[in-house]
Amino acid sequence: MPETTSSSTIADPRFSPVVERLTSEFAAVHHEATVARCVDAARHGALEVTGRATPDLVERIARQHLQVLAMAFAERR
């Protein structure tokens, strides 16, 4: 079954450029759907912790999550 992107991230166009940049940056490691889910999770986390989720903050959080996932995948191989 193909992966689908998160409807929350897609619904807010402010985060589309974030998904695009991170998808390009992690193209060799993660599918776009994984990136979109990380961006969505980062957005929700930022909202819960700080009460706001700017694209800048969400991108930094999502990038860190994607880097950790990439390291975990590399260790499993």
From TrEMBL:
Q: Which Gene3D superfamilies match?
A: Corynebacterium glutamicum thioredoxin-dependent arsenate reductase, N-terminal domain
Query: At the top level of its lineage, which domain of life is listed?
Result: Bacteria
Name used for this protein in its record: TetR family transcriptional regulator
- Biological classification of the source: Bacteria, Bacillati, Actinomycetota, Actinomycetes, Streptosporangiales
